[in-house]
User: Which sequence fits this backbone?
């Protein structure tokens, strides 16, 4: 790659590891602060007209639509009305992940904070703690463990196989897959954007290869649009899986 | 057959030229002793200036991405932004307006339904009040009517009783008169017979009559 067309793709570490500032505060941390502040501002500014029942403006519409989306498309689909108590947590989770993803297309920032796995891991652990606590509180520790490890209708002689599988699947794979799904998708998207930007630059620099540069650039534009979708989709998937896990801990029969 | 061969040859020629062009560009990379990449060059500089290998792993700037990435990423972002501005923003605005209109309509219809409900409630309450008044009036009328009927029945009963009493008194008086007359006749006849037997003489009619009356009068006074 390096010799062919002399494309100078930076190493992965150089597009994901940023130098530390004071107190170890770095670009990734700054993006998370931005995501937290953006989520906060969206709901503080979007709901400041408390007497206005008819929404007006982008902020109020976005805040209200966001809450309605999490309520109708995530909670009601996975947990039912009992899950509405988790609406604040799930809405915050959705917008926080979305805002920390979407920075990958913002010019000058161009990095999704979730391409580092610290925060995906933290959020996945938070989900793990919540659904386990909910399961223990709602079902009691013995029933929760039994319902989690022994699926209904499994013959007794298969339990020796099923129980370890369920143990690994429920208590280890769930948080791990949540973390890896978000982290790997965002890292892959970031690398694709970096790669296409680098290729576009390399092709543009060569006199004849400029002819094929538009294809690369078109793909860069397409992937930028696609990454907006991925940012939204990954936030949605993380939130809905969290809701599914909490819902299954609340209602073991479903 | 010949056409096919010509086509195959043409394709082979194009492929050969293509490979040649790519190979030319591939060979065009400078074959010098310099490190192959910019990152490697920067790393060597850092190491020579006393840096560690960790410094080579990090992005050159703590905040800023590579220039190529900023330039091309920004251009693609702008292209996307223009496209979104042209197609996405109107769609979002339409959705926003549709949502506002729907909520406004819902609120208005809820307000209307509430006003209608309140009006209906007021109407029902008024009707209930009217019905209650009407009921009270009917009960009052019935009571008055019952009182009238009672008074009328009592008056009629009293009147009938008075009539019965009067009739009984008349009847009694008639019976007494009749009995008196019968008695008078019987007494007269007996007196005549008695007198005839006692006196044993005949009297003329007027003398008889006088005797009878004087006898009756004497009986009546007794």
Assistant:
């Amino acid at each position: 790659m390096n010799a062919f067309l002399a494309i100078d793709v930076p190493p992965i570490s150089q597009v994901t590891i940023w130098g530390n500032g004071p107190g170890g505060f770095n670009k990734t941390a700054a993006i998370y602060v931005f995501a937290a502040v953006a989520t906060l501002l969206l709901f503080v500014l979007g709901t400041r007209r408390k007497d206005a029942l008819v929404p007006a403006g982008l902020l109020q519409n976005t805040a209200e639509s966001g809450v309605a989306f999490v309520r109708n498309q995530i909670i009601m689909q996975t947990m039912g009305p009992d899950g509405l108590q988790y609406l604040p947590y799930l809405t915050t989770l959705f917008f926080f992940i979305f805002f920390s993803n979407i920075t990958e297309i913002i010019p000058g920032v161009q990095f999704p904070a979730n391409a580092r796995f610290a925060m995906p891991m933290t959020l996945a652990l938070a989900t793990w703690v919540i659904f386990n606590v909910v399961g223990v509180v709602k079902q009691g520790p013995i029933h929760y463990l039994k319902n989690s490890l022994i699926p209904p209708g499994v013959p007794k002689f298969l339990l020796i196989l099923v129980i370890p599988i369920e143990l690994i699947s429920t208590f280890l794979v769930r948080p791990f897959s949540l973390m890896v799904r978000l982290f790997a998708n965002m890292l892959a998207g970031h690398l694709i954007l970096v790669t296409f930007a680098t290729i576009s630059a390399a092709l543009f620099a060569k006199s004849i290869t400029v002819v094929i540069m538009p294809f690369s650039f078109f793909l860069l534009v397409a992937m930028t649009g696609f990454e907006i979708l991925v940012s939204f989709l990954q936030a949605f998937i993380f939130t809905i899986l969290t809701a599914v896990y909490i819902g299954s801990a609340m209602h073991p029969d479903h | 057959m010949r056409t096919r061969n010509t086509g195959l040859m043409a394709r082979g020629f194009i492929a050969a030229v293509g490979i040649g062009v790519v190979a030319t560009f591939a060979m065009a990379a400078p074959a010098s002793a310099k490190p192959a990449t910019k990152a490697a060059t920067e790393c060597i500089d850092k190491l020579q200036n006393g840096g560690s290998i960790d410094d080579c792993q990090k992005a050159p700037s703590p905040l800023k991405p590579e220039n190529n990435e900023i330039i091309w990423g920004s251009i693609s972002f702008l292209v996307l932004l223009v496209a979104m501005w042209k197609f996405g923003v109107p769609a979002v605005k339409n959705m926003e307006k549709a949502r506002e209109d729907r909520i406004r309509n819902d609120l208005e219809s809820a307000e209307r339904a509430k006003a209608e409900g309140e009006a209906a409630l007021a109407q029902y309450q008024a009707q209930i009040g009217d019905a209650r008044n009407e009921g009270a009036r009917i009960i009052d009328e019935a009571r008055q009517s019952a009182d009238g009927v009672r008074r009328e029945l009592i008056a009629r009963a009293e009147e009938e009783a008075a009539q019965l009493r009067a009739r009984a008194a008349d009847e009694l008086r008639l019976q007494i008169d009749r009995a008196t007359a019968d008695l008078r006749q019987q007494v007269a006849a007996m007196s005549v017979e008695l007198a005839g037997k006692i006196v044993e003489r005949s009297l003329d009619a007027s003398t008889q009559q006088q005797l009878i009356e004087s006898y009756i009068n004497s009986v009546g006074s007794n």
